[in-house]
From TrEMBL:
Keyword Cytoplasm appears in the UniProt entry: no
Nucleoside phosphorylase domain sequence ranges: 281-460
UniProt cross-references to Gene3D superfamilies, sorted A to Z: AMP nucleoside phosphorylase, N-terminal domain (3.30.1730.10), Nucleoside phosphorylase domain (3.40.50.1580)
Entry-linked PANTHER family: AMP NUCLEOSIDASE, URIDINE PHOSPHORYLASE
Start and end residues of each stretch annotated as Disordered: 1-20
Biological-process GO terms, alphabetical: AMP salvage; nucleoside metabolic process
Gene Ontology CC terms: cytosol
Protein's UniProt name: AMP nucleosidase
Amino acid sequence: MTDQPEGRPLPERDTLPPEQAVDRLEALYAEAVLAEREALARFVAGGAPPDAAERARFRYPELRLSWSGGEPPPPVRRAWAKLVEPGTYATTVTQPAAFRPYLLEQLRPLAGEYGAALTVAPGRQEIPYPYVLEAGDELSQGGVSAAALARHFPVPMLSAVGDEVADGLWDFRPGTPRPLALFDAVRVDYSLRRLVHYTGSDWRAVRPWILLTNYQRYVEQFVAWSIAELGRPGSPYVRLVLPGGGSVARGDDPAAAAAMAASAPWQRFQMPAYHLVAADGRDGVSIVNIGVGPSNAKTITDHLAVLRPHCWLMVGHCGGLRASQVIGDYVLAHGYLRRDRILDELVPPEIPLPALAEVQVALQQAAAAVTGDAGEALKRRLRTGTVVTYDDRNWELRWSQERRRINLGRAIAVDMESGTLAAQGYRLRVPYGTLLCVSDKPLHGEIKLPGAATAFYQRAVGEHLAIGLATFDILRGQLGALHSRKLRSFDEPPFR
């Protein structure tokens, strides 16, 4: 990414209230995108490339917050929208209209409770030209090469995209702003485009409550439940967005809606996603079939995290490791033995991943409500313990090497995604939880034979999915506690 030279002063800034600050972000971003689109269209049509003055307009807006720290900070219990160190904080912003509710949620308490001053002006970070193309194929009819575009327009530079703030690797230098948010504009734009690529749906459709699964059967149950919800009087949901861009809406004929969902080209996408949208346009539930393995789990959560969801839950299958477990039992993870290795450099294995009390309690309450079990009856079906996550599906072939570690970890279940998803939630400050269903017992000779597996899936998947959805219903009323201080570092950016 090419930035403005450090020595060039930024434009004068007026202090703005939160609503006007976001208005200004939207206006500056729209102006920059329009200017770059017009220059691209002219150049592809054979016209002149942008000169330096025109290219200087292709920049993300920058939001700055200044706090003198003269008065003692207010006693605030929430984990976010807090200031500890006086000074200036800054971040560049993309798609401010789409992120408006989130931005106001952060800025109102910072301005109102701390008296922080907000200013907005064009920043130094240029907008890569692919990120101003809405459909992505607008330049396909021109004869201009990618190399020619790169000579005259900003291009994505992966060397300028990073998670240094989230990973605590940023260096504070006197005279420079501290980070205001975990992700800057170019990092967010990078992930927004990746989400479309992997899930097959517009990033704007992703809801703040996310179910992650490793079996397509959960998706099928989610679609069936969603279509039923759209037909239920009093339902808060109005639309189900499908991979490939299609959707079904409230009032559609259920049979036609089911046929539409069945015909969605989900197989084209590596991690297809479905999004049930609430009437307010903000709430709702998404489900993503992440497939098998920790690499997929890290990839998709790297990108989902820029949307700042309220919670992601892993609902999938696992191998039971204890003789007392029965196929169909549930495992509520309260610890993770991470043998996947994929995040060892970013979140070393010796770093504990805390179980979030609000999520754990909600999962248990939801399980009781859906199954109808309580007390000892619930304990027989739902066991709390450590889940071991491997990057090797054939870990059983190394049982002689792994036996002692599993014993020391007191693990009760094994899978290939949960530890990675929890580590990503911890690392990227997204509340997380895991509820798995025992589908086989590899150490005790109970494997999934075709006939038994079919019966198991038909019985268990619908109930398991219902528990995940009921958990979100519980957590919606606990947002203040859900975004826990357990996920915040001592030098955390103010934004959630």
